[in-house]
Amino acid sequence: MVRRLKVFLVVMLTLLIGLECLIRANEATFAALADKFLLREELIKQASDETEIMILGTSRLLDAVDQRVFAEAFEVRTGQQSKCFNTSIAGVNVEILHRFAQRVSEKEGVKMVLIEASTPSLTKQPVNLDGQIVEFTAKPGPNENRFADRLEEGLRGWIHDRLALVRQRKALRPKTLVKFLVPATSDVIDPNLWDRKGVGRSIALALTRGISEVKDDFLIPTVVEGRGETFEGNEESEEAIASFMIRLTRLLQEAGKEVIWVAPPVGEQAVPNEHYSRRIATYEAVVNELETVLLNYTARGLGEEYLRDQTHLNFEGRNQFSVVLARDVSEVSQLREIRGDKE
Prior knowledge:
Number of strands: 8
Structural class: alpha/beta
Low-confidence stretches: 136-141
CATH superfamily of the largest domain: SGNH hydrolase
Strand content: 5-15%
Radius of gyration: 24 Å
Order of helices and strands: HHHEHHEHEHHHHHEHEHHEEEH
Mean pLDDT: 79
């Protein structure tokens, strides 16, 4: 009995030492697995050189655009085979969006970037997994400075500094470890499948259903374009949001990318939060400052049959909007090419 216990302890200790060495040698990878934003950055950096279109946004564009459907619909419209990567992910705010844009700007093969314009994507406040802004709450008062608490905190910090196994413990969860396969298969399997709700159903529907046919008059956006010297501006515009949008657009344009902003569709109840005078004035000020375009789909609410909730699309809505977005982006892109030729 004692011998078996010793063998068991030796085996367990050997496994733990082996795991510690493995994590130490690949700590950056394990850190990325435990942090969805770091993993997303890694996927952007590792994206195929054939990727020409990237999409940046929150869970709204994650649920709104299927990159495979978009790419196929875009090819039908333009005759050009363009690989697309939808980098959108839940919880993104302006700081994370800027980090992603910086990574995209470093990808020489990327020609076009579509960026989400919405309240969550344009705020500095944290955003939850449902794409809603998290309100700041008052922090609890300080605890008593007891010796036991100081000792516990000190031991925890000592162990954390010396064991990679403890530092990257979140990456060892079964659901997180599965993500080891995501970077290796991202060129074959859409990595967004694992981040959307209802993974199994989405995969089954994607395998059994083709691209939806969309009527030409379905979900026509308001196209916001610059008016040049005739534009007098609007004092109602939201300066902080406008400043961020301009900074992000310039970052990508200076890297030679075509930038198109997209305000994704929402349900009728969410329209007042996305389509109001100050926000419209902000969009107009931004596109007039730069050579860019904004496709605004928020003027009218989508029907319940296309929605998972008031700000996210379901499978049918995603399939339909991916085709719609490809239609409108191709038209904008072709029109800008014609204007460029004339100039």
